Automatic annotation (TrEMBL):
UniProt protein name: Calcium-transporting ATPase
Subcellular localization(s) per the UniProt record: Endoplasmic reticulum membrane; Membrane; Sarcoplasmic reticulum membrane
Domain Cation-transporting P-type ATPase N-terminal, chain residue ranges per copy: 73-105
Molecular-function GO term, any one: P-type calcium transporter activity
Organism: Nothobranchius furzeri
Length: 1098
């Protein structure tokens, strides 16, 4: 009755059941089939077709006739219109101020008369061209920003094979027409068309490459058994096939449970679409700077205009109050143009572009220019394991065979193998001494099993100059081992690298002929090959490899040299004990047992169609030996991790691999100490999910390893790190990594990764190497330091221009600089040295310092004072140069300062200006003097910017040859506008005499002395106080060396070195070596604190 009163609509039923399908899909098959039948019951127009698979019967609805089912392909992203993107480019406050200044200047230019008519239009046109160029670049970047989402289309399968009522056999249809409930068949080489629950496997094994989702390169073996855990991660859903993954081997039938945006790859698309791209720290600081600058500009411009209200009616304006108001309004506009560093965006872009070129030479390809600088304040690197920290080349590093059997047990020959790549180069060591493998009978047979029980091979890539795998990684590791062993002492001299790739394996395979393979199956956990000898007289053999516990259980004998010894329970336990030691110790090796069947059944008597009998054929085995392999760490990673620790950067491994392997690799590369307790520092995805949100947040603060994670975990970890104000670099290569790559401040994709990962990232590693990230971070720090220097240079220059215009307006002096001259200086003359400052050499200790606080102001209080001091002198010197010409130049009018201040009252009838031609106040000489002083003084100021605090005596100009070249070029351009027609007319300047140039240099050179004095104060009076950023331990801490030595350790006597231990102010760590170093060398507090590990919060 309830159903009659509240009928369930087909559309609502579909939505409910689609949710349930994903929940039940990987669990009980019976429950899942019930769910499918319930779904079909409510389908409005079910067109059933019978498809049998084993003992289960399924009904599939036809996609074309079902109503209410939306498209099952990933929907296209709705991007912003071109107009919306253009408008966005003008939302920046600095840009709007410039745009307003250009518009006002254009209107004022329409009313100019005489010679100024042409030059008046230069200023607004130049400003508009700059704004248009910035808008074009911004729109282009925006157009490419969402490519990552559309790149997911690459992984959408185009076709699928389904069973439908209108065909008796399987039919191929477009993947977009497949719907939940369809019966789908997949085979080797197919791209899975939807998320599918496997119901029947039609081959001995089903292997799937799902690296685009999980990031793990090893293919996964699938089965049909239920996965009862409702919280199983994708890696553990062994009975599910995921849309977009590839079938590596086998054939299977299954039922569709999700399509389109409901698939796992669709969920990733939604995560990416919902991730907002945040501004980089530099962009945020520049925005804040723009807001501050706009307020100051507005205030000063209004002040200048208001202060001169009394001069609006001066005779020079013809007695017109309106003309006077417009005149001073033009001065206010010129002041705005002078205050805005128009060249700053171009210089920053150029500096970042140069940085990208340097990074590209180090195999780091930067896709987003602002990210170059962001790398410099990276405080956490979240790195994938496979291929980044490791070589992604499985390598056998240990093996053993039996030596002899005694009453007390069995002794083993244990060997270690050098070499961590697929290159067939390395030594076999026994007790750290090289051995000839051919001298050990057990090793000859072990090499034979490794070579024959193998479908992989090595290939030498001549273009890349490296050896690559052809086939499975595990089997390729065995192939490489055989080449290193060279058990038959094959002469390898004279072979090319292509021939060397398989020389030793070829010798073995010439002795035996492989008849057929019994593929790996999940129940017996092994695979085998049936081989017959090439030369008659020998019996056929089966070679077996597989999981040690399974293979050893089926072994009846143990190979000792050339003999067979009966396998006893004690021997089995001893062998398994050694294997467990390898599998759970420091290395956490993946172990494979190798065995032979010396008397297998005749191949005619074997039923190869029935895989359930394979285990019977593999009984009565003889154990040969065991190999232990791993994906080894890259050689250079250990040093890079150590460098990160010294630089205050925390390295976190995030991997889809199991926890034991992940922790073992962490220990090997230095993320964890060899004996360090990892409790609370290493988590699986499941363990992390079991924590409460607040505990999760605290766990992320301490953890350095996350294993068995899914895409959602990565994004959550990035979110927690960002809540601590950490700047996070996240690596990834698969589609599953894309949301986290996009969310992190620095997304780093692997060169061998998917197009989706690359499109979502800011940087691509062409060599997939973790060490390249560290090199990029170092480059980013150097770029930021250089950027601070040229920003300091440009801002102090602009402050000088503002002071110049402000002084002339306040004192009532004639214009010293006009807008077109200011534009020329800001864009061209200043721009060249500013760009060259990007080539300043990096500090030698750049990676010995902690990451900078992303919240620290771009301009600190002391820096602001220095800007004002230098800028004040620049402005004063510029006004002084123009004033000197009026008062003291031999060919000038030599008027009094009073007359100069009241020049607007100059008329023929005014007795104050008797004998003075009033047109002299419109001469080009004073503006030329002012412009020349401004350019020259800023060239000297560029030399000051070589270092923030180092004297020019310690860091001479020739350390940056590019800067010297830029200064020479800038001065040449200045001479060009002074002496080459018609440029003097455009810029309203005139050639200067030699005596006038001497005055220009006299006024300009003291700026060096002034900045040297300010640097001296910085070095000797301000560096003793250290502000060090420790983001999630203790926030901002101010410590001086005196605090550490005297206040916290009264027994330390600076006169004799303080031999007693000194506790660190933060953690109490003993700092005895540090204090001895401080007392003996008088280092600063900044250098002292590098000795204390608590200042490495990671």
């Amino acid at each position: 009755m309830a159903n009659e009163s509240t009928p369930v609509s087909p559309q609502r039923a579909e939505r409910l059941i689609l949710i349930e399908l994903n929940s039940f899909a990987s669990r009980s098959l019976v429950e899942f089939i019930k769910c499918i039948n319930f779904f079909l019951f409510f389908s409005p127009t079910p067109i059933p077709t019978l498809c049998t698979s084993g003992s289960a019967t399924f009904y599939s609805p036809c996609a074309r006739t079902r109503r209410g089912v939306t498209s099952t392909e990933l929907p296209a992203e709705e991007g912003k219109s071109l107009w919306e993107l253009v408008v966005e480019q003008f939302e920046d406050l600095l840009v709007r101020i410039l745009l307003l200044a250009a518009c006002v200047s254009f209107v004022l230019a329409l009313f100019e008369e005489g010679e100024e008519t042409t030059t008046a239009f230069v200023e607004p046109i130049v400003i508009l061209l700059i704004l248009i160029a910035n808008a074009v670049i911004g729109v282009w970047q925006e157009r490419n920003a969402e490519n990552a989402i559309e790149a997911l289309k690459e992984y959408e399968p185009e076709m699928g094979k389904v069973y439908r009522m209108n065909r008796k056999a399987v039919q191929r249809i477009k993947a977009r027409d497949i719907v939940p409930g369809d019966i789908v068949e997949v085979a080797v080489g197919d791209k899975v068309p939807a998320d599918i629950r496997v119901t029947s496997i039609k081959s001995t094994t089903l292997r799937v490459d799902q690296s685009i989702l999980t990031g793990e390169s090893v293919s996964v073996i699938k089965h049909t058994d239920p996965v009862p855990d409702p919280r199983a991660v994708n890696q553990d859903k062994k009975n599910m096939l995921f849309s977009g993954t590839n079938i590596a081997a086998g054939r299977a039938i299954g039922v569709v449970v999700a399509t389109g945006i409901n698939t796992e790859i669709g969920k990733i698309r939604n995560q990416m679409a919902s991730t907002e791209q945040e501004k980089t720290p530099l962009q945020q600081k520049l925005d804040e700077f723009g807001q501050q600058l706009s307020k100051v500009i507005s205030l000063v411009c209004v002040a200048v205009w208001v202060i001169n209200i009394g001069h609006f009616g001066d005779p020079v304006h013809g007695g017109s109050w309106v003309r006077g108001a417009i005149y001073y309004f033009k001065i206010a506009v010129a002041l705005a143009v002078a205050a805005i560093p128009e060249g700053l965006p171009a210089v920053i872009t150029t500096c970042l572009a140069l940085g990208t070129r340097r990074m590209a030479k180090k195999n780091a390809i930067v896709r987003s220019l602002p990210s170059v600088e962001t790398l410099g304040c990276t405080s956490v690197i979240c790195s994938d394991k496979t291929g980044t920290l490791t070589t992604n080349q499985m390598s056998v590093c240990r093996m053993f065979v039996a030596d002899k059997v005694e009453e007390s047990g069995c002794t083993l020959h244990e060997f270690s193998i050098t070499g961590s790549t697929y290159a067939p180069e390395g030594q076999i060591l026994k007790g750290n001494k090289p051995v000839q493998c051919g001298d050990f009978d057990g090793l000859v047979e072990l090499a034979t099993v490794c070579s024959m029980c193998n479908d992989s091979s090595l290939d030498y890539n001549e273009a890349k100059g490296v050896y690559e795998k052809v086939g499975e990684a595990t089997e390729t590791a065995l192939t490489t081992l055989v080449e290193k062993m060279n058990v038959f002492k094959t002469d390898l001299s004279g072979l090319t690298k292509v021939e060397r790739a398989g020389a030793c394996n070829l010798v073995i395979r010439q002795l035996m002929k492989k008849e057929f393979t019994l593929e790996f199956s999940r129940d017996r956990k092994s695979m085998s090959v049936y081989c017959t000898p090439v030369k008659p007289g020998s019996r056929s053999k089966m070679f077996v490899k597989g999981a040690p516990e399974s293979v050893i259980e089926r072994c009846q004998h143990l190979r000792v040299g050339m003999e067979k010894i009966a396998m006893t329970p004690a021997l089995r336990e001893q062998l398994m004990c050694k294997i467990r030691e390898w599998g759970t110790g420091k290395d956490t090796l993946r172990c494979l047992a190798l065995a032979t069947h010396d008397a297998p059944p005749r191949k005619e008597d074997m039923d190869l169609e029935n895989c359930t009998k394979f285990v019977e054929y593999e009984r009565g085995l003889t154990f040969v030996g065991c190999v232990g392999m791993l994906d080894p760490p890259r050689k250079e990673v250990i040093g890079s991790v150590k460098l990160c620790n010294e630089a205050g950067i925390r390295v976190i491994m995030i991997t889809g691999d199991n926890k034991g392997t992940a922790v073992a690799i962490c220990r090997r590369i230095g993320i964890f100490g060899e004996e360090e307790d990892v409790t609370g520092k290493a988590y699986t995805g499941r363990e992390f999910d079991d924590l409460q949100p607040e505990v999760q947040r605290d766990a992320v603060k301490r953890a350095r390893c996350f294993a068995r994670v899914e895409p959602a975990h990565k994004s959550k970890i990035v979110g927690y790190l960002q809540s601590f104000d950490e700047i996070t670099a996240m690596t990834g290569d698969g589609v599953n990594d894309a949301p986290a790559l996009k969310k992190a401040e620095i997304g780093i994709a692997m060169g061998s990764g998917t197009a989706v990962a690359k499109s979502a990232s800011e940087m691509v590693l062409s060599d997939d190497n973790f060490s390249t990230i560290v090199a990029a971070v170092e480059e980013g720090r150097a770029i930021y330091n250089n950027m601070k220097q040229f920003i300091r240079y440009l801002i102090s220059s602009n402050v000088g221009e503002v002071v110049c215009i402000f002084l002339t307006a306040i004192l009532g002096l004639p214009e010293a600089l006009i807008p077109v001259q200011l534009l020329w200086v800001n864009l061209v003359t200043d721009g060249l040295p500013a760009t060259a400052l990007g080539f300043n050499p990096p500090d030698l200790d750049i990676m010995d310092k902690p990451p900078r606080n992303p919240k620290e102001p771009l301009i600190s209080g002391w820096l602001f004072f220095r800007y004002l001091s230098i800028g004040g002198y620049v402005g004063l010197g510029t006004v002084s140069a123009a004033t000197w010409w009026y008062l003291f130049d031999e060919e000038g009018p030599q008027v009094s300062f009073y007359q100069l201040r009241h020049f607007m009252q100059c008329t023929e009838d005014n007795p104050v200006f008797k004998g003075i031609d009033c047109e002299v106040f419109e001469s080009r000489y004073p503006t030329t003097m002012a412009l020349s002083v401004l350019v020259t003084i800023e060239m000297f100021n560029a030399l000051n910017s070589l270092s923030e605090n180092q004297s020019l005596l310690r860091m001479p100009p020739w350390v940056n040859i590019w800067l010297l070249g830029a200064i020479i070029l800038s001065m040449s351009l200045h001479f060009l506008i002074l002496y080459v027609e018609p440029l003097p007319l455009i810029f309203q300047v005139t050639p200067l005499r030699w005596s006038q140039w001497i005055v220009v240099f006299k006024i300009s050179i003291p700026v060096i002395l002034l900045d040297e004095a300010l640097k001296y104060i910085s070095r000797n009076h301000l560096e003793g106080q250290l502000t060090h950023w420790v983001p999630h331990h203790i926030g901002l801490v101010s410590i001086t060396s005196t605090d550490l030595i005297v206040r916290h350790h009264p027994h330390s006597d600076p006169t004799w070195g303080g031999l007693e231990p000194l506790p660190c102010q933060i953690c109490g760590t003993s700092l005895t070596p540090s204090i001895n170093h401080v007392v003996s060398t008088n280092v600063t507090a900044k250098e002292l604190l590098t000795f204390c590990s608590c200042f490495n919060p990671r």
